[in-house]
C-alpha cells in the first residue's frame, strides 16, 4: 500500500510540475515518448556496426544511417571528406537554415574506440533499465538523443524556420593529423551562436560548462655510456635513466597539486639503444644491467582547463628539465592537441536553461559538473567562438571499455530535455 501511495505521489508531483510546460512543449514530450521504441531500434542498429576510428568503412556506414534519418526530417545533408592520406572517414553534416531563434550547432561523433581487431559486443538488453554494446553511450546514444529530439520537433512542425547544424565527426576518438581534420568543423561553428555537445551525461542532473584540454609532451634524456661500477662518479655521471627519473619526480612534486592540471607519463624506454615510433606509440630498447644508459625517452599527456594554465605548466616543466644531473642533459617538446573549454558566463547561462527545463519537466535540478572529471572533446575546438554546453547525451557506465552501458530509464528523459532546450533556443 505504501508503495502505491508513493507512486501516486510521484505521478501527481510530475503532473503538477508538467503544468509549467506550454501546450506545445507537452506535445513535444508526447512525441518523444511515442517515438522511443524507434529511437532504441535506431540505437541498436548503429551500435551493431563497428565504427572504430580506423574502420573507415564502418564509420561511413554509421554515418549513412544517420544521414537518411536527417534527410527524412528535412535537413540538407553532406559528407565532408578528409585527404586520403589522413585515413579517416570524414564528417557528416546536416543543416537547416532559418531566421528564427539562436543559430545552433549540435555536436556528435560517429566513431568509437573499439577497432576491428578488438572483441565485438552487440547491443544487448541486460534488463529493463540497462543495455550494453560498443559505443552505446560514447557516443552513439548521444547521436540518437540529437536525432530523436529533432524528430519530435519536426513531428510538431517546429523547425520550419530554425537555424540548426548537426555535425557528427568521424574521428573524435583518434583525430586525424593536420588542420584539415577540424577546419570545416570550426568554420561552421563560427557561424553559430550556441554549441550543444551530446557526449555522455554524467547523470541526469549534471552538465558540462567546462572541459579540460589535452596536449602531449616528449622528453629525451642523454647520459654517458660506461660500466655500471662508475655510476655517480664525477667523470661518468648519473646516466639518462636517473635523469629521466629526476625530471618525472620533480614534475610530480612541483605540479601535481594544481587544480585541473594533470600530466601522465604513458610510455618510457631507456637503455643502451633506444628507439621510439611515435606513430605506433611503440618503443624498443636494448640494455644491460652493467651498462649506464646513455639514452631514455618518455612520452605523456598534459591536461588543463585554460590556455593560461597550459602555458604556465609548460614553463615550469621546461625549468625542471634544464636542471640536469652530472654528465646528463635533457630536452622536452610539446605538441598541442585539444584546447581547453573554459567556463564562461555564456556557458553557465546554457546550464541554467538545462536546469530550468529539467525542473519544468519535473526531473529536478541540473548543475555544472567538475571539469576535472572529463577528458577532451570536439566542443573544445569551438569553445572560444560560441557559448557551449556539453554532457547532454545519454547516461551510462564504462565508456571506452568492454561492457559499456546505457541507462535506458534516463534515455527518454534526456531526449525530452534536449528537445525542449532546442525548442526554447529556437523561439
Automatic annotation (TrEMBL):
Keywords: Carboxypeptidase, Hydrolase, Metal-binding, Protease, Signal
Stretch forming the signal peptide: 1-18
Start and end residues of each Peptidase M20 dimerisation domain: 209-324
Hydrolase in keyword set: yes
InterPro entries found in the cross-reference section: Bact_exopeptidase_dim_dom, Peptidase_M20, Peptidase_M20_dimer, Peptidase_M20A
GO molecular function: carboxypeptidase activity; metal ion binding
Top-level taxonomic group: Bacteria
SUPFAM superfamilies: Bacterial exopeptidase dimerisation domain, Zn-dependent exopeptidases
Keyword Nucleotide-binding included in the entry's annotation: no
Protein name (database record): Glutamate carboxypeptidase
